[in-house]
Amino acid sequence: MIERYSRKEIADIWSLSNKYRIWLDIEIAACEANADEGIIPLEDLKVIKEKAAFDVDRINQIESEVHHDVIAFLTSVNEHVGESGRYIHYGMTSSDIGDTALCIQMKQAGEILINDIELLIEALRLKSLEYKNIPCMGRSHGVHAEPTTFGMKMLLYYKAFQRSLERMKRAVENISYGKLSGAVGTFSNISCEVERKVCEKMGLKADEVSTQVIQRDRHAEYLSAIAITAASLDQLATEIRHLQRTEVREAEEPFQKGQKGSSAMPHKRNPILCERITGLSRVIKSNLMTALEDVTLWHERDISHSSAERVILPDSTVTLDYLLHKMIFIISNLHIYPENMTANINRTGGLFYSQRVLLKLIEKGMSREDAYKTVQTASMETWAGKGSLIETLKATEAGKMISDSEFSELFDINYYLRNIDFVYKKCGLI
């Protein structure tokens, strides 16, 4: 089993202390690079590296007066450093540290989400193998279609979250960029080497071209990967919710000891975790629209994106981490009822065999239109409770064209499951 990613709790990534720590790391790395360029005397660099620090409460106090977070941060740092602090932030603009640090935070959060998705994939892999050959009814429009297996249901999501994993990895790669290119991205007052060296030290690539900001299509891609993952979680949660309905009851989310389902009805076992996943996935999906709106900024930059990102990035990453772990718990402890699956398969008197009979009548020489009409008419009688499909068919023209032994072959459920292994092989599980 893959271990829980534990280097940082995802909420801590978005704390002020972590953000300012990254800002300070960037500023010190820039001072080192500027010292290499001969801009900062080595004795001043030594003082900066020894004394540079910040105080979150002090930053908040200063910001309440100056209404500029970076200036408040730099003031706090300079209070620790003293005279040599004049070289900190040399030739840089606020977004040089703000945008670069934001990408680092997104990378840190993305790595946790990647690990979460891997954990869910493993849980789904185990369930898909365990129930590979357990038949259940497949449904389209909520109506019985043809049999599948419960393992196939799990296999579908195993592959869906593999795709989410690849999207998340690409998104993390494409957000792992920094910029220290000055006020409008022209390196007017900062060396190009400073950007290269700082980004390399911070584990980022230098953005090929930036304005005052890193372009927000990168951030939108990141939120898109998160939103699609949330959408797949919603899809899986909705499937479980449908399967948990009293009339179906083929699967059920965990109901723990001491849990109560209703203040009024002691019998209730409600799919509250799956409903929570559905509800919160809507929040994440709506945040993507904001990220897409943030792509459009005035000229070289404005800050219409900044306030929104302070909400949508922490909220989306923290929420997805929460939802993924809830779904891991649900899948790992899912209550599954094969006997109810069998009962539901038998509920409609064999109606799902209709296509097999249709094709057999065509093979026997009947036109498709007449074959369809014959089988549909018999099916409607079965829907009306006038006997099983095989009984109603035998009283029609089909009964004259198809022998009893052929009917037995047509009404064999194993026919529908004969290629399950083929699907699993395509997915690399057998």
* CATH architecture assignment name of the largest domain: Up-down Bundle
- Tell me the CATH superfamily of the largest domain: Fumarase/aspartase (Central domain)
**Average of per-residue pLDDT values:** 94
> Which fold name fills CATH's third level, the topology of the largest domain?
Fumarase C, Chain A, domain 2
Helix content: 55-70%
The structure class reads: mainly alpha
Major beta sheet, strand line-up? 1-2
Largest sheet: 2 strands, antiparallel
First and last CA, distance: 19 Å
Number of strands: 6
Q: In terms of per-residue confidence, which ranges show pLDDT below 50 for 5 or more consecutive residues?
A: 1-7
C-alpha-based Rg, rounded: 30 Å
Overall geometric form:
elongated
User: Please, how many helices?
Assistant: 18
Total number of domains: 3
H and E string: HHHHHHEEHEHEHEHHEHHHHHHH
Measured by DSSP, the beta-strand proportion falls in: under 5%
CATH class of the largest domain: Mainly Alpha
Notable traits:
430 residues; mainly alpha; Fumarase C, Chain B, domain 1; Fumarase C, Chain A, domain 2; Ribonucleotide Reductase Protein R1, domain 1; 3 domains; two-stranded antiparallel ribbon; two-stranded parallel ribbon; 6 strands; disordered N terminus
